[in-house]
Amino acid sequence: MKFSIVANPKHPRIGKILTKVIGLVDDFELESDSAKIVGLTGIPMKDLSGDIVISLGGDGTLLYIFSKINIPVFAINCGGVGFLTEIEEATDLFPYIQEIIKGNYELEKLQRIDTYLNDLHIGTALNEVVLHSSKVARIQGFEISIDNSIVDSFRGDGVVISTPTGSTSYAMSLGSPILYPTMESHIIIPIAAYRIGARPLVIPSKYDITAKLTGNPEAVMVLDGQEEILVKLEDSIKLKKSKDPVSIVRFKDNFFDKVRTKLRL
Fold this sequence. Notes:
By secondary structure, the chain is of the alpha+beta class. It folds into 2 domains: 3-110 and 245-264, Rossmann fold, CATH 3.40.50.10330; 113-241, Tumour Suppressor Smad4. It contains 6 helices and 19 strands. It has helices spanning 14-22, 32-37, 59-68, 94-102, 170-173, 255-264, and strands at residues 3-7, 28-30, 52-57, 73-77, 87-88, 106-110, 113-117, 120-125, 128-133, 140-146, 149-156, 158-162, 185-191, 201-204, 209-213, 218-223, 228-232, 237-241, 246-250. It has a 6-stranded antiparallel sheet, with no helix packed on it. The longest helix has 10 residues, at 59-68. It is elongated and about 55 Å long. The chain starts with a strand and ends with a helix.
């Protein structure tokens, strides 16, 4: 089995962690920026060809990998919370690597959201798509439709359209319910809506979502916390369940343990 290794170069101890992981695998390749950490030559992210990607970082590193390639990822937490990751870097990694080589693991498939601006596909989000007013403390109007039927219209700071995976991220901080990661659902969550009745709405992911601005001339749209995309009043924004889910290596179902230890305590 061939491993591709991607490390977050901003982590203060990443060189030591990366060196340890390299010593545990025989057939591997390094992503270009990761290779620089240990003075080796690497491969651009888009050209990685391993059977499994080993991610060394936090949830942000994992999201970045999936924004560039769609290869199953074994995520080792070297960051903060690391809710999406499978194990902590302080764990004895050797048995886990050996189990992967033997094929003794499961792949948890996570749905994503395809995003279209004026019918042009602009990206795919694993966590969420955020529409937000373009200026701080300036209220904006939003209209949300599901399969061409208006379900909500409000003024506020913005709106989040989240996957179940994203329900433990930005959506959670806005009062969203936490969904099991493989549920076939999306969540629509208003941000600081100027209306008491504006509440998160959970819908089946088979439904397409359309959003448009009804207030100020422009807003910004952000996919998984990446770069801002300018959206104008006349623009059409459509969101659909992606046909290309991503896969994370799991050894057991520890979702509820993570909710308890990483989010509740």
